[in-house]
Protein: AraC-like DNA-binding protein
Organism: Roseimicrobium gellanilyticum
Amino acid sequence: MRTTATGLLGSLSTKGSLVVDARLVEQIADFMHDTAFFIKDASGRYLVVNQSLVERHGLEHKSQMLGRRPCDVCPGEYGRIPTEQDAHVLRTGRPITERLELFWRRPNVPVWGLTTKLPIRDGRGRVTGLIGISKDLTALVSPEEVPRAVAQALRHLESTFDQPVSPSTLAKRAGMSAGRFARIIKRIHGVSPMQLITKTRITAGSRLLLETDSSIAEVALACGFADHSAFTRSFRAVTGMSPSEHRRVAGTAWKPGRGHEDFDLLQKRHRLLS
């Protein structure tokens, strides 16, 4: 018998008399245009997806994803990484929370997101599936709302990310405690200060890989990494591929003057934080 979302989750009950059918979760998720939402069974196959996730994969209908795993939807590295993430959650029962990840959209713009995957358990505590979201990271407040001291610290990061920098040094530059600085950064950008540093460096590295012929080692040093290996580890952690793989795949897809065919092919292969 094929597992269904309703069978996996049942009904969502409150302490009162309200009972919400699991299908309503899918309906409300379709209104989350900046968030990919999904429910998967014990084998990592999609049971529920929202329309945003479907469109991120370059598809038109949810039926094109249901019953399939990420590696079935996106061949290669783009599908392998989320499939391995799912297997880890399903095998260990340990959640993945707010993992910083990067993907690309037309026209050659990096888009960052935070991915969370939580195990679903039955009455006996056994893992029977997972539920997750990947939310796009966008500025949560306008530039005018950012405290001046924090804005100065962020400008410092943007101009010196090739040098040693840490959350504590940024907090000190802003003239506040590390805890207060972290809370403000989370409110502004939706990430921790360390995630913001990584995001800044990887974004710069991604562009250098596509826009210059610099070696991987040169890009690594230009973006504040100790060496080629450190850059590769960080880059793979948030993109699912090595810098050289990214340069080859993304660079080919977005060459100026090329048609949309290469991009569309890449989109269909892309994991897009799922």
